[in-house]
Amino acid sequence: MAGSTAPEKMTPQHPAVEPEASIVSRGALLAWLFLIVYASLYPFTGWQHVGLPLQAYLFAGMPRYWTGFDATINVLGYIPLGILAVYALHPRIRNVAAMLLALLLGIVVSGTMETLQTFLPNRVASNLDFLTNSLGALVGAVIGSRSSHLVLERSRLRHVRHRWFTAEASRGLIILALWPLAQIYPQGYLFGNGQILPILSEWLSAWLDIPIDLGDLLRSGVQLSAEQYWLAETVITACQVAGALLALHCMLRDKAPRWLLPGAWLLAALAVKTLASALLFKPQNAFAWVTAGAMGGLLLGIALSTMLARLRPPLQRRCAAALLVIALLAVNLAPPNPYFVATLETWVQGKFLNFNGAAQFLSLLWPFGALWFLLHATHRTKRK
After folding, report:
1. Do residues 116 and 40 touch, judged by C-beta distance below 8 A?
2. Residues of the chain below pLDDT 70
3. Where does this protein have coiled-coil stretches (predicted)?
């Protein structure tokens, strides 16, 4: 027919690009599920069955005592779950089907958490929490469905991700994005993540019914002087900063801003630490982390990462893993910082109890997640 044009055909020079599944979204969904579980069941002690049916909370009257703050937190906490669930299903399942599956996931997770809370004497299962959590999952599912094609297929961020980061970086991006958030929970030493011996000591003490301090046993009762506390913080801070920055360096391509990104990432972690100190304690304690040991460790860590960043990526990964292991050993062998303990006495958790549980979860496990990524088999897979 005159004036009509033939449909445009794809040529070898312009092949059709098939949408890909997002490993980042699936990993982020798994991480968010872990955070929800930890925040919902924290502090994981005092489990007992009180004799009530597990579903009794669903048919009970609405709670008499609740606040707008709690309801808002419940909604906001499940919105990312709905968004990430839709993203994780893309491109295999989309639109209404993805929304319904994301909503179903939110309902199942929320119902399971509320049911398990009936076994915890310091937690209260609530049908209002169940409804607000489900509402958050629904809102997130709608947002995810409306934005999945933009974020996962035509997003500027997707282009930047492929231009700046290596193909193996998906898992690492999730873990490294959590590093600043891992600084929210109060720590005795700057970047003192991974201090698991006190938690293990509490569990063993409760199990054996006798007080046990694993850290004190490993130190053989040795006490540190003020100068040794300063040195311990320097070593802990320097090793974790250098290890974290090297982990980021080994994921960067040549076209990436190789010095701007690590610098901005470190500043973000320090900014989160400062804000958390001001909110959890008092505004005048915002910069309580600025000590001689912390500043010395920061400078030493930046210098170490700058020198080691010139190595080839496989060597960077090994050095980063070694530095994080040293930081883990140091933070678990060092005794509690008496100056930090004095500051901690002013901490009133209040409404942030559940949030602090999730923050502690991140603080404890972040170094182990980083080591898992650095030693993952995908780094040894040759790609064409």
Report:
1. yes
2. 1-21, 50-52, 54, 61-67, 153-155, 157, 221, 338-357, 379-384
3. none
Q: Collapsing DSSP states into helix, strand and coil, what is residue 307?
A: helix
Q: Is 21 helix (H, G, I), strand (E, B) or coil?
A: coil
C-alpha distances in Å from residue 39, one per residue of 35, 88, 131, 308, 325:
6, 22, 17, 37, 27
Alpha carbon dihedral 222, 226, 232, 235, in 10-degree steps, equals -150
In 3D, which of 34, 32, 42 has the Cα closest to residue 82?
A: 32
CA-to-CA separations, 225 to 56, 100, 222, 231, 298, in angstroms, rounded:
56, 59, 10, 10, 21
* 128-182 tens-digit pLDDT: 888 999 999 999 999 988 887 777 766 676 777 778 888 778 788 888 888 998 9
Asked whether 317 and 328 are in contact (CB, 8 A), the reply is no
Beta bridge partners of 165: 252
What's the number of CA atoms in the CB half-sphere (13 Å) around residue 193? Answer: 33
As a residue count, the chain comes to 384
Question: Which pTM value belongs to this model?
Answer: 0.67
Separation of alpha carbons 328 and 370, rounded Å: 12
